[in-house]
Amino acid sequence: MTQALPPPLPPLVGITLGDPNGIGPELLAKLFAGGAHLAACTPVAFGPARALPPDFAFVPIETPQQARAGRVHLIDTCLGYKGPTPGLPSAAGGRAALQALQAAVGHWRSGRLAALLTLPIDKSSIYGADFPFPGHTEYLAAAYGGPEPLMLMVLGGLRVAVATAHIPLRAVADALTPALIEKKLSL
Q1: End-to-end Cα separation, the chain, in angstroms
Q2: What is the DSSP secondary structure assignment for residue 175, as one 8-state letter?
């Protein structure tokens, strides 16, 4: 008698918690509440375990290869983190967000993750943690060594590419030029 092989593991998706004092940990919990989306991916979150809601079930692991189908996993990248102060930006929160991002990008670049989802950071906190980028998009482009990045937002069949980013809304009209729009369309 032959033994049946286990079903293949859905793609490993790295998810950074973002700023532990912000909405990222709650977003992660809501995204996977009741096992939602676990058939489509195997989530591996990166960040401080202390930031997650107390009733959120996850499996602590040390590497993405330890992940198993049907569960949310966490690689605690901030073992010395004392705990979140929800809604209050802090240098510790910025450092925790950057440590999680660096760890997740390292696994993504090495091919251990199929995709990477980044939850919101607090720019005022992360800038003090040696993060000289306007946002995630530019950080990921530098880390991956790719061409100029293009931020794309997706919801169902809607796809929105951003021509200008990280500037005040009142500056957008002056920043939009035919050359910039052509450049972004070519990306």
Answers
A1: 54
A2: H
CA dist 53 and 6 (Å) reads 31
Separation of alpha carbons 30 and 36, rounded Å: 9
Asked if residues 13 and 116 have their Cβ atoms less than 8 Å apart, the reply is yes
Pairing of strands 73-76, 59-60: parallel
pLDDT tens track for 13-72: 999 999 999 999 999 999 999 999 999 999 999 999 999 999 999 999 999 999 999 999
Give Dmax (Cα) for the chain: 71
DSSP-based three-state secondary structure for 142:
helix
Residue 62's φ and ψ, nearest 5 degrees, are -110, -25
* pTM, to two decimals: 0.86
Length of the chain in residues, anyone? 187
- Check if the beta carbon of residue 158 is closer than 8 Å to that of residue 56: no
State how far Cα 6 lies from the chain centre.
29
